[in-house]
Amino acid sequence: MSHTDLNQDLADFISQSPTPFHATATLRSRLLDAGYQALDERADWQLESGGKYLVTRNDSSLIAFQMGGADSLQRGIRLVGAHTDSPCLKVKPQPELNQQGMWQLGVEVYGGALLAPWFDRDLSLAGRVSFRTAEGRIASRLINFKRPIAIIPSLAIHLNRGVNDGLPINPQTDLPPLLAHSLDPARDLRALLSEQLQREHADCANLDILDYELSFYDTQPPATIGLDNDFFSAARLDNLLSCHVGLTALLSAESEQACLLVCTDHEEIGSSSSCGADGPFLEDVLSRIVPDAAQRVQVLQRSLLVSADNAHAVHPNYAAKHDDNHGPKLNAGPVIKINSNQRYATNSETAAFFRSLCEAANIPVQSFVVRSDMGCGSTIGPITASRLGVRTVDIGAPTFAMHSIRELAGSRDPGYLTSVLRHFYNCAQLI
């Protein structure tokens, strides 16, 4: 697949995945189309040599794995990890606001979002809605309005003269999106959701909406931009880019290898949930792949996890925010992320292994270390390594504007990272 075709497929994947629920559904659909079998955690599993399987939890996290040949587990599992969530604005449980003749919804900031870019954007709404059916059964469906239905207008500079001097944004009072004029009778969000569910799902009539998890998102589609098409611009590159790359690589893995892709929710808020990386999801699945505890330890000690999450590219306008010797650049290959305080799980052995993979794939590779006078973010890498004891390398595609409503990557970097992860899934021997 060419860089152009890969980026178009990535753009389609991102457009289909405005929330972690939708990202998981899109991953699931593509895996099913590729011959993977869906498993239910509540049922017994009959795993077979050569089988390909997937399992989801909370509709927002997914693990896909292929068993490989008869002795593949003894050679170790090739694991790739990413996360399905991104910073966003989530609708509150009782959100309706009627202010100055306008109907708005109160929101809560999810994760470490850059808030200023959310203003003056065409926003839509998507997520999961739970309801009681006419038969009294509680069920859930995904919902996506798709069209722009909301906006957060900026206050005119004439009324906010100091805005360009860095005035703070109050999430409680400044961020409620505007959806419509207030009407009599008053608008009702649950009625709006019921109508939308009926449009999207033929079996969703006569519902009693009980609850929801809804997020606003930018409707501007992903795009390859720049005079020479050097850049790829989209929402949620952190971390749907890695989810897509992991999926694409997995689908080209040789059938004899034992391979696994884990895409978990809640990374942006610490991963501590039943479906997050700091929860038991991956351990539960691995315990069913390798039921014997002693053998499972042996398998994991022969395995390796590539934790794929975006890296900070050196911004030409803010180059001083980087260590002079560790400023990754766009379109210069994947980045090995290193931190001596274990905010990243990379060590010299796993970094050396990843460098050798890049060399084998004829792909350039870079390193990132945060400035010594700045704090460092983290990933699912240290969390998973500490829970499983598996050797781990933290890597990612270099990007600008991480945690903005719209982020920027190099147009060649998704292809570079895909090539390396294909080599990883297909490599004959791990370290």
Automatic annotation (TrEMBL):
EC number: 3.4.11.-
Gene3D superfamilies (UniProt xref): Aminopeptidase i, Domain 2 (2.30.250.10), Zn peptidases (3.40.630.10)
Residues the record lists as binding Zn(2+): H83, H158, H403
Cofactor(s) needed by this chain: Zn(2+)
Stored InterPro entries: M18_aminopeptidase_2, Peptidase_M18, Peptidase_M18_dom2
Keywords recorded for this protein, A-Z: Aminopeptidase, Hydrolase, Metal-binding, Metalloprotease, Protease, Zinc
Pfam families in the record: Peptidase_M18
Keyword Protease assigned: yes
GO MF entries: aminopeptidase activity
NCBIfam families: PRK02813.1 (NF002759)
Family: Belongs to the peptidase M18 family.
Classification via PANTHER family: ASPARTYL AMINOPEPTIDASE (PTHR28570)
Protein name: Probable M18 family aminopeptidase 2
Taxonomic placement: Bacteria, Pseudomonadati, Pseudomonadota, Gammaproteobacteria, Pseudomonadales
